[in-house]
Amino acid sequence: MTRAGTRVGFIGLGSQGAPMARRIAEESFPLTLWARRSASTDTFADTAATVAATPAALGAASDIVCLCVVADADVEDVLLRPDGVLTGMAPGGVVALHSTIHPDTCRRVADEAAKREIAVVDAPVSGGGGAAAERRLLVMAGGQEADVARCRPVFDTFADPVIHLGPLGSGQLAKLLNNFVFTAQVGLALDTFSLADGLGMDRAAVAQVLAHGTGGSRAAAVLAASGFNTDGLRRALPLLRKDVGLLLDVADTARAPRPRTLADLTTHTLSTLDRSPAP
């Protein structure tokens, strides 16, 4: 299927999804949008995107549907409700799940989709809306190779790299592990800058050292870029807590040994962000 002939639907026009959808529109894919609030789609009035009345109507207008909603329940709702995406989508379509959800949820919706001869790819992302706008988002994909290949031209509009990790659910495992490690690193960064304060060191100078030295981390860089303001991290606390819980549940179900040090660090991070407005 050529790029010009691939119709794309997008649901989940938040701070992450909206820049992704805009990149798809800018690359001239026929794009259909649906959102619970008209304000979310109004910002696309300057594009050629059309707005569907229901998720089912979006499904009927799309060969590939991208979902970037928040949680497992949201994914299941827009796909499986009576006027959901799967009701309208024709056999042969592909649903790409960009949300960070439990791998079991991916498999559950894939089983329902298969009854309609629709494929599912899990393709969670990392990098933020700014990275999507700059076409450098990371996509971690799981699913059949042919299905991922069909989606890749769409993913390439907002992502580099796109990494195919294996069967369905593999992308979610990678994203959860990534978020788990990031959460642990946030705690390390908070402690590092607090220690620098105690030693009478300048935080900005320490951040420069970490950015160029072996002790640096993405979390330390994020904190420094915010001017050491933890408001954004604190707003993200429910999502960080959700993803840590999902990773530990997956590990326990697989009877994998719990990573004690990382688990302790994530607990420290979550409790620190919960109780303190500043590092």
TrEMBL record:
Residues 169-261 form the 3-hydroxyisobutyrate dehydrogenase-like NAD-binding domain. Pfam families: NAD_binding_11, NAD_binding_2. InterPro entries: 3-OH-isobutyrate_DH-rel_CS (IPR002204), 6-PGluconate_DH-like_C_sf (IPR008927), 6PGD_dom2 (IPR013328), 6PGDH_NADP-bd (IPR006115), HIBADH-like_NADP-bd (IPR029154), HIBADH-related (IPR015815), NAD(P)-bd_dom_sf (IPR036291). Signal peptide: none annotated. Keywords: NAD, Oxidoreductase. It comes from the Bacteria. This is NAD(P)-dependent oxidoreductase. It comes from Streptomyces coacervatus. The lineage of its organism: Bacteria, Bacillati, Actinomycetota, Actinomycetes, Kitasatosporales.
